[in-house]
């Protein structure tokens, strides 16, 4: 069954990695599909998977933007989001930006 808007989710895979995805289905349905290997290239070799975090967005465009944002995050930043440690997110982003800044000559 499809729902209005879309949900973004992070799965914890059996190998300890994280998978970030987006669905317009019920989250439980999509997780079951991942665990069955249905439309699940990355997670099919890393089962079972468990839901670590999810958020629903009324607008599909907002969900797509959030999924892309999270996919670019470091593991530490994803783990802060999963813990609900929202205060840590800006600092983790700042550290990454410092590392990727221009190199001294």
TrEMBL record:
Residues 4-80 form the GIY-YIG domain. Belongs to the UPF0213 family. This is GIY-YIG nuclease family protein.
